[in-house]
């Protein structure tokens, strides 16, 4: 288990710190921890825990002009940590109420443009980058009630339209909700995309179909909570991704 923790100064960092770096007025430390430490009890303090990454965590970020501080290899769990500079800006969820319509469209275009970059990486299978199964229930039909929750289910069957749109599998973030998109302080552009743990090789039709289905709703005060998903789907379609009719609201 890995913990990213905030401390006041380099002198107060834990003895088992693997690497530390400056984060605003504080110091951020990455260290190993046993699962027992995370159990709530006497001495449990969560206020300064920045991120807890278990064996399945693979949180990465696309950041414009990213500045890399360090790279750490965790050979036991076959994973890598990329320590980067803190991203400036705010989430789209926070900025949405005061963004103008042109700004919202511009941010959607930025995200669509970025999605097209990793999408150049393709696979012949529906899988993660390490060849594991993908935790994403939306593309899979609901299982019949007698089907045990632990038993694997096949992807599909695909409709004829889906088969025509599924020309291989393309790398996709799959969780582009407004809390995972960062925008500049003036709201004119997207500055980062975070939380890539759902990133995997998805059917090509799914890239624009998921936001079009209403999956990325806004929780802030707004007249149209589904507007972000609609704008993103339109931007992705401009980049060549089609929406399967069955995913339209």
TrEMBL record:
Per the record, where are the segments of Basic and acidic residues compositional bias?
133-145
Look up the domain of life of the source: Eukaryota
Tell me, what's a Pfam family for it?
Answer: APH
Ranges for domain Aminoglycoside phosphotransferase? 72-206
**Annotated region described as Disordered, given as residue ranges:** 128-148
This protein is called: Aminoglycoside phosphotransferase domain-containing protein
């Amino acid at each position: 288990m890995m913990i990213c923790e905030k401390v006041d100064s380099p002198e107060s960092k834990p003895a088992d710190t693997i690497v530390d770096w400056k984060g605003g007025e504080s110091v951020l430390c990455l260290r190993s921890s046993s699962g027992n430490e995370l159990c709530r009890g006497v001495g449990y303090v969560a206020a300064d825990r920045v991120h807890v990454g278990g064996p399945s965590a693979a949180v990465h970020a696309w950041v414009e002009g990213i500045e890399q501080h360090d790279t750490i290899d965790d050979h036991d769990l076959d994973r890598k940590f990329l320590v980067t500079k803190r991203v400036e800006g705010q989430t789209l969820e926070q900025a949405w109420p005061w963004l103008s319509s042109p700004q919202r469209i511009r941010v959607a275009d930025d995200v669509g443009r970025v999605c097209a970059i990793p999408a150049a990486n393709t696979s012949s299978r529906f899988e993660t980058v390490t060849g594991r199964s993908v935790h994403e229930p939306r593309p899979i039909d609901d299982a019949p009630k007698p089907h045990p929750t632990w038993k694997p289910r096949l992807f599909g069957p695909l409709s004829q339209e889906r088969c025509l749109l599924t020309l291989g599998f393309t790398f996709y973030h799959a969780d582009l909700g407004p809390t995972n998109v960062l925008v500049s302080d003036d709201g004119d552009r997207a500055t980062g995309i975070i939380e890539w743990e759902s990133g995997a090789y998805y059917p090509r039709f799914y890239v624009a179909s998921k936001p079009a289905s209403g999956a990325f709703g806004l929780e802030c005060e707004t007249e149209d909570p589904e507007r972000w998903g609609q704008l993103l789907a339109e931007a992705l379609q401009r980049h060549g991704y089609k929406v399967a009719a069955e995913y339209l609201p």
